[in-house]
Amino acid sequence: MKNKALFLLLVTVILVFGSCASRKTTLQHPNYGKNKTDQGRTPVTTSTSGLTYIEQYKDIAIAEMNQYGIPASIKLAQALLESGNGNSYLAREANNHFGIKCGGVWQGKSVTRPDDHVRDCFRVYNNPEHSFRDHSQFLLRKRYEKLFTLDKNDYKGWAKGLKEAGYATNPRYPELLINLIERYQLYQYDRPEVSYATKEKREEQVEDIIHEREIKEPEATMNTEVIKNAVAMVIYEVKATDTLYSISQRHGVSMDQIKQLNGLSSDDLSVGQLLVITK
């Protein structure tokens, strides 16, 4: 009888500890599957894609600043916005970080993407450096001429000047650029002219380039919208609790539209990621 009682006690202990051990192996992180009820979307993860993008392209932006006087901070902020931290289809597949269209003067490769029309033509570059240089060339036009008289480290003046010159129709465009610059401390890459004489020389060189282009490319100069439509986008920064579905519902647009505008191939998002909602 005692042996039978001991046997039953032993079996009970084994079952209890076995059950506990089993439960320990199935414990999950408290946030595991937290958003699965939200239309089955995958929860976002933390990412430093903005910082990675800046580290990758800051030297190119600085080189362009030294050449033409466009603050490196402005160049990087515009690239971050237009390319979605380098995640847009055009940035990934065409090395086009500023959304510049073909235009009548473009003789290089191109790709068609839906934008204002179903098959709009966008420029394809051999590498990102060409895209950054072409963006500088795009700004070397009469309508932006007075911006080049600003100091190379006057990012606030440039942000406001771009809007006033018609680069953007979004009234918050200067604020978006300035917020990005100050959030990522992009102003650390700006450099003032070493002297007034150096600034004056650079201004004269830029003025000569602009006037020469006006003679050679009058049609492209007069019809800049053919090459680059004014930015009229709504930008949204992804929060930790966001999903693609919740963002689409909040802004009254479809998930497919957001994915198409940002070149997304899945529903995955990253905290801090900038999404173009409408253009």
From TrEMBL:
The keyword Signal applies. Keywords: Antimicrobial, Bacteriolytic enzyme, Hydrolase, Signal. SUPFAM superfamilies: LysM domain (SSF54106). It comes from the Bacteria. One of its GO terms (molecular function) is amidase activity. One of its GO terms (biological process) is defense response to bacterium. Residues 1-21 form the signal peptide. Residues 234-277 form the LysM domain. PANTHER family: PEPTIDOGLYCAN HYDROLASE FLGJ. This is Peptidoglycan hydrolase. It comes from Sphingobacterium phlebotomi.
